Here is the input.
Amino acid sequence: MKIEAKNKLNMTKKNTALHLDTLAVREAVPKSQYGENSESLYLTSSFTQPDCETAARRFAGEEEGYIYSRFTNPTVDSMERRLAALEGTEGAIATSSGMSAILLLVMGLLKAGDHVVCSRSVFGSTIKLLASEFGKFGVETTFVSQTDVLEWKAAIKPSTKLLFAESPTNPLTEVCDIQALADIAHNANCLLAVDNCFCTPALQRPASMGADIIVHSGTKYLDGQGRVIAGALCCSKQLIKDKFIPVMRSAGMSLSAFNAWVVLKGMETLGIRMEAQSARALAMATWLETLPGVARVYYPGLKSHPQHELAMRQQNQTGTGLGGAVVSFDVKASSPIEARARAFHLIDSTQLMSVTANLGDVKTIITHPASTSHGRLTEDQRQNAGIQQSLIRVAVGLEHLGDLQADLLRGFDTLT
Ligand SMILES: *Cc1c(COP(=O)(O)O)cnc(C)c1O
Here is the structure.
C-alpha cells in the first residue's frame, strides 16, 4: 500500500494569509497517512496509548495526544479549528448543542453570586437557562434592551462578570452595537459573549469588534442542511484551557464525532450559502414591503429597519453588508384574533415551505412565533417583546425566489 506522506493542504497551524473562503474548505487537523481528501471521521470512543509513560504525560496535559472522545477527538478538533479560523479567534470548543455551549459558558466562567447582563431579546431558551436554571444556583441575570446601550451600562454592578448579546435577534432581527457593548464590558472588567448564530462568521465576526467569546448553534447555518444538533464557543486558547476544558472533561457536553464531521463539511459551503440566502431574503423582504396585505417587514437589509446602518457596518465580511436570511413580517389585521387567523391561513396555504421549528436550513422554513417559539409567554409579555399574533417568520433557504413568492401568494390571494 502506498502511504501518502504529503500533508500540504491541511493546515496544522493558523495561516492568517488565507481568505475565509479558503479556510472554510481547508482548515483541519493533518491528514492521516492514507492521504484522504475529505476529512476523516474518527468514530472512536477512545485512543490507544503507545506506552504508560506517554499515557501519563497526556493525561497530565504535559503532552498533546488524543485520550478519550469526551474531551479530545480529531474530527471534533477539525471542526473546532475550522470554526475558530472563520471567527478569527485563537480556538474553539465544540459542544453537543447551541444550548450546551451556553451551559458551558456559564459553568466555566461564573459562580454563585456572580451577575450577568443580557439582552431581553435573545433566544428564548437562553433566557430560560440564565433566569430559571442558573438562578437556582445563585447566578443572577438582569435583562435589558437589545438596542439601548445606556441600559446595559446602567445594569452593571460590582458582581457583574459577563455581558451576553445576540445580533440580529429572533424573530424581529433587532441589531445591537457589538463594539459599544464590548467597550462597556471591558471598562467594567467583564467579558462580552455574542451569539453569532444568525449571521455566522461569513457575515459578521464579533471578535473583530471586541467580543471575547462567540457562541454558536452549529445546528443552524454552520451545518446548513438541517441534519444535526451542535454548538461551540470560540475564544482565546487561554479561556479554553483554563475555564472550558476542565468543565467539558467533568461534565461532558461533548459534540459527537459524527455530528462534528457533518458540521465540518457544512462549513465548506457556508460563505456561498450565506450570500445566496441573504440575497434571496433581501429580495423577498423588498417584495413583501410592496404587498398590500403586509403591515410591516423586519429585515436588517432594508432601509426601513431601525438599525439598518449599524447592521450593514457590522455584517460586512463580504465587503457589502448582508442582512442574513431571516425575514419577519406582520400581516394586516384589525384585531389579534383576526391577525392570528390570517397568519395561520397564510402559513397553512404554503405548499413548498416547511412548517418546522428550525432555521438555517437550505429548505425555507415558515413559522408563527406567537404560537410556537414564543407560545409560553403571556399575551402581555408577547406584546412587550413585539411578537404580535400577526407576525410570520421566514427563514429563507435556497429554493428559487419566484417559487417562494408564489408559495406565499397562495395565502395572500385567498385571504378574506
Ligand atoms: C437555535 C439557537 C440556539 C440554540 O441552539 P441549539 O443547537 O438548538 O441548542 C441558540 N441561539 C440561537 C440564536 C439560536 O437560534
